[in-house]
Amino acid sequence: MSLEKLTSKLNEIAEDGKLALAFSGGVDSSILLEVAKLAGIDVLTLTFDLNESRKIPEVRNNDKERCYYCKSLMMKSLKAEAQRAGYDVLCDGTNADDLGEYRPGLRALSEQGVRSPIAEAGITKAELRAIGRELNLPVASEPSSPCMLTRFPYDTFVSDEMISAVTKAEQMVKDAGFKACRVRVYGAESRIEVPFEEITLAEKENLTERLCEALNPIGVEYIQVDPKGLRSGTMDE
User: Fold this and answer.
1) In this structure, what DSSP letter does residue 218 have?
2) pTM of the predicted model, to two decimals?
3) Which residues sit opposite 193 in a β-bridge?
4) Which DSSP letter does residue 115 get?
């Protein structure tokens, strides 16, 4: 049923049989791309260099509205590129769950006239993953990969060195066998988030000691496995 709903919504949006897609390579946009192709729609995939958005002060300083500023620049740029290529409609991978969370970037999508077929069809993340499994897409089982700025508190200047350190730390956690994880940094303290049922295993694996090498250079002195486990929107709590 969800696949049919999404296909119908895509056909409704792509009135001339084609559309442009802001493609991140993540779960949502990857599954959306495959469904659109199966529907026979001509899809132009466009990607954005996030390093461009990091030049914006509100983004670099991790302002609470950072997503709005980033998405504004991103969608304005991609929309212009799409129109130059002859594609009048630009879509993204926002899902129905996103509409109920704190996501200032949604305002930017509305302002730029970007369509969100998954959300408009009322399809949640879980339902979208089910569509992916139905189509035998490996990406359906991949963990979500939110922006790296979500690893730091709001109003914190985030340097390239900080992003690189956390990226390295998270890869170390994944290499230890934890496919889904986040490494959050709160000044001199860092917390490792893994699924709640894997917390005991994470503690036995001595992950805190392993991550010292990656995080000490950016001022982290204390690392612990978060007892609340992996969850979305930690910095909004």
Assistant:
1) G
2) 0.92
3) 182
4) B
Contact 33, 65 (CB under 8 A): no
Exposure letters 49-67 (e unless 16+ CB within 10 A, then b): eeeebbeeeebbebbeebb
Lookup: tokens for 161: 């060195």
pLDDT of residue 63: 96
Average pLDDT on 1-20 reads 96
Residue for token pair 């340097």? 159
Looking at every residue in the chain, the average pLDDT score rounds to 95
Inter-residue long-range contacts of 51-55, CB under 8 Å, 24+ positions, other chains counted: 52/77
How far CA 129 is from CA of 5, 40, 135, 159, 231, in Å, comes to 14, 21, 10, 33, 18
* Residue 118 three-state SS: helix
Terminal-residue alpha carbon distance, the chain: 34
Helical H segments across the chain, by residue range: 2-13, 27-38, 50-53, 57-60, 66-84, 105-111, 117-120, 125-134, 160-175, 199-204, 207-210, 212-215
Q: Is the model's pLDDT at 1 over the cut of 90?
A: no
pLDDT, position 107: 97
Q: Does 149 have pLDDT greater than 90? A: yes
